[in-house]
Amino acid sequence: MRPFITRLLFLIFWLMAYRSSVAQAPARALRLDAAVEMARGQSIWAKQAATQKETAYWRWRSFTSDFKPQLSLSGTLPSFTRSFVEVTQPDGNIAFLPVSFNNSSLNLALSQRITRTGGTVFAQKQLQRFDNFIQNSTLYNGIPMAIGISQPLSQFNLWKWDKQTEPLQYNESQQQYLESLEQVALDATVYYFNLLIAQVNLNIAETNLVSSDTLYKIATQKLALGKISQNDLLQLQLGVLNAQKDLASARQGAEVAQLQLKTHLSYRGEEKLDLAIPLPGPAFPVDAAKARQEALSNRADAIAFKRRLLEASRDLERAKSNNGFNATLTAAFGLSNRGNQPLDIYQKPQDREFIQLEFSIPIMDWGRSKSRTATAKANLQLAQQTVEQDKMSFEQEVYTQVTLMGMLQQQVNLTARADEIAAQRFQIAQDRFLLSDLSITDLSIAIQEKDRAKRDYILALRDYWRAYYTLRLLTLYDFEQNRKIQ
């Protein structure tokens, strides 16, 4: 009969203390998948990624527009001058004569880049008007039609290289956006489990305080009955003090983790987040060869490998092209005329031809050209070596993550089973202590093992879900659904 009364008292004390300890403000329940989606949808980091993606898109639009025909209107209207100018007379003397005129012009031009050669073809129309206010006369000059070409000779063609590197850079930005979202999801998982572990520690601390306090009160009765020693009672009293200290520390840790998760999710609600323990992740096979293939196909880093090599080759060609003969040929053919009226320039216009060759040849540069070329060659070799090393590290990281996934799936199952066993063992130990069939030391060991098993299980879940989202980040592939991440 007495063991039954002892158990009943223990249960009453425990329920009263537990009810007071869990009286908290309303909280919002939140699961891991909901937290991840919230982070992807509204966090400041997700918005920054979207902004960077939009910036890259408009840069790409600006680049592609440069290779389309460009129509422009330019001119000087008006261009009025009233002054005295220096005029040399037939006898060699200088006279300063007054002038008052307006010299205005309009030019309509259509141009098109030639990517392969680096040149530009153009067509233009031009009209010029000259008003002499002193002589009260007006003259018109114009080009009804002209076509021409401006072609660099033996010069570096940046447009040709941009045609190769800019598409890679744009694709790189698109994949970088997907990686940013996966990184947001990974960070949300880290903060989620930080808070979950803090809440589990808080729950353990609250439960341990309730249990320690209840056991101490029951032990006080046992001491009066002579069933335990004063030393055991003092040990239980010390356990109550330690439990109070652990509870204060756990509350502080939970508050900090709560704030960090809310900040990452950009969550504005004032209520606390009450996190649910996620279920063990889905078990799905991950083939290392496929993971490597998807990573090299999808990741921004893999695209960057090609871009970095192209840019190094571009810089080498630039150094070679700028070290020798450089010239630009400009040629144009059209019609031109003058008259007293604007339409006079269209009446029997005359041929208009223009050809010009500009060139430069270095004669003595004291080895500067050779040094620039040698530097560019060395940079190309360094880029090739660096890319090769980065590629090996990249592939090794993917392989390591695939191996880790398989191990962590098994680890979750083992720690879940250990958590169940430790909880059952603690219940048995607690019942035996109430029956005076177990020492304080053995009960303390059972409590510690129970707490450690619970924490180990949560940590195993954390490691698994972190590895899950890390694998998605490294490959941009969803192995659970067997499809690329879009």
UniProtKB/TrEMBL annotation:
This is Outer membrane efflux protein. GO terms for molecular function: efflux transmembrane transporter activity; porin activity. SUPFAM superfamilies: Outer membrane efflux proteins (OEP) (SSF56954). It comes from the Bacteria. InterPro entries: OMP_efflux, TolC-like. Residues 1-23 form the signal peptide. The lineage of its organism: Bacteria, Pseudomonadati, Bacteroidota, Saprospiria, Saprospirales. Transmembrane segments: none annotated. It comes from Haliscomenobacter hydrossis (strain ATCC 27775 / DSM 1100 / LMG 10767 / O). Keywords: Cell outer membrane, Membrane, Signal, Transmembrane, Transmembrane beta strand, Transport. GO terms for cellular component: cell outer membrane; efflux pump complex. It is found in: Cell outer membrane. Gene3D superfamilies: Outer membrane efflux proteins (OEP). Its main location: membrane. Belongs to the outer membrane factor (OMF) (TC 1.B.17) family. Pfam families: OEP.
